[in-house]
Design goal:
Largest sheet: 6 strands, mixed
Strand content: 25-35%
Structural class: alpha/beta
């Protein structure tokens, strides 16, 4: 099973020093720590009501708050989106009250971090807010955010995108405060990053029966796995996110690398159109998908940043080429070995789909020097899987089996000089 790992270990021993120097020169990203606030965070705003009216030419959104909200508006292209940033906000209205219509084909809202929230309005084409204001309601006890959207031409929208500024405090907070301090690991510890998929404004999939959000399921499993791994001598596991907070895909990779992780395990529980499909799947990275299901899943997962209203910043082609080459040469074989170890642990213990080891171009698995897998624990689109995903005992069982897989993987790599 570990033949690929042995070959990769011998090759890595010859190239490791040079590769890491190249990576250090090209990829190390320094993020300034967020300044400590001298003012304690206030209770979050409460958005207790919402409504949307209008048609394809003009659409109005009204959101009721318990007190006056500060807000800022930005525009993003490809696809066209309007982003409304808010302070920390609890959204207490029913989802149907702000269902997309008129000029908006998708509306998302939720937490970004402890101090900020966001509304992302994906539009049907070039659109601007002709009116964006806060006004007191009739009772004088609360305030309303009123957003009037109207159609514009592509040139006018491009000018809005070009001339705006993203220097607001809320945007700065989401790019700096999410990176945790380096974990304290003893010399020789095997460090593992456990990544709970989705979070904050990005809810992920929704359960077919209970309507449970995927971000809640993945965080519960991630905490259970981290706790179980940390009971093993010589293993130090940590969470990329510890609560309901949004992290971009690149932030997740960066957190793993900055904490010198030797493994990255990303946990997910998606939905499929075919509700009869159930069971676990393990994915590794590849520039070519193994099949259509893997390709479709990777495409959906790679949209996480877009859902949260973040611009996708492409890396320079020469860096991307180096990254891909190093991923293939230094870590892909190790990732495959980890995937096989996980599936061996699951054998006769956990149901899997047909051909349970698949691969595709998942951006969250792109750390060039960290073996990485994405584990679909089950599918929230299947009623039986959903029951298991919400079962605490099942979470404990999965955590134990994954820990056994990690221990076998670590032993094999160490035995071969890894």
């Amino acid at each position: 099973m570990f033949k690929r790992a042995r070959i990769a270990a011998k090759s890595a021993a010859r190239r490791s020093t040079f590769a890491r120097r190249v990576l250090a020169a090209l990829l190390v990203v320094s993020l300034l720590p967020a300044a400590a606030s001298s003012v304690e965070a206030k209770d979050p705003l409460l958005a207790y009501g919402a409504r949307i009216v209008g048609a394809d030419a003009r659409t109005r959104i009204v959101i009721d708050f318990d007190r006056e909200p500060r807000f800022s508006v930005h525009y993003i292209a490809n696809p066209e989106r309007i982003v409304v940033d808010l302070p920390a906000t609890a959204f207490g209205f029913a989802a149907k009250d702000l269902a997309a219509r008129g000029l908006f084909k998708d509306i998302r809202y939720g937490k970004m971090d402890e101090e900020s929230a966001r509304i992302v309005l994906t539009t049907t084409g070039p659109v601007k807010l002709a009116l964006a204001k806060v006004q007191a309601d009739e009772t004088g006890n609360g305030h309303r955010l009123v957003l009037d959207a109207e159609m514009i031409d592509k040139k006018a929208f491009a000018e809005l995108v070009k001339t705006q500024s993203w220097s607001d405090r809320t945007e700065a907070a989401q790019t700096t405060s999410a990176i945790p301090a380096p974990q304290k690991a003893a010399p020789g510890d095997f460090v593992i990053a456990v990544d709970a998929g989705h979070g904050g404004i990005d809810t992920g999939a929704i359960g077919v029966d209970t309507k449970t959000e995927e971000k809640q399921v993945t965080l519960a499993f991630a905490k259970a796995l981290t706790d179980r791994l940390n009971k093993e001598p010589g293993i130090k596991a940590f969470l990329t996110r510890e609560d309901d907070e949004f992290l971009s895909l690149s932030q997740r990779v960066l957190i793993a690398r900055q904490n010198h992780a030797g493994l990255f395990i990303s946990l997910h529980a998606d939905t499929l159109k075919q509700k009869d499909i159930r069971g676990a799947t393990v994915y590794t990275i590849s520039d070519k998908a193994s099949d259509k299901l893997a390709a479709d899943l990777a495409e959906r997962e790679n949209l996480s940043d877009q859902i949260a209203g973040k611009e996708t910043v492409a890396e320079p082609p020469e860096v991307a080429d180096i990254l891909l080459d190093l991923t293939r040469r230094e870590t892909q074989a190790f990732s495959i070995s980890l995937a096989e170890s996980v599936l061996n642990s699951f054998k006769d213990q956990v149901g899997t789909i047909n051909n349970p080891h698949r691969h595709a171009g998942f951006r969250v698995l792109q750390a060039p020097d960290v073996p990485s897998i994405l584990l679909e624990i089950g599918f929230l689109s299947n009623a039986e899987d959903e029951k298991l995903l919400l079962d605490e005992a099942w979470r404990g069982k999965i955590a134990g089996l994954l820990t056994d897989a990690v221990k076998r993987y670590r032993a094999a790599v160490m035995a071969n000089g890894g």
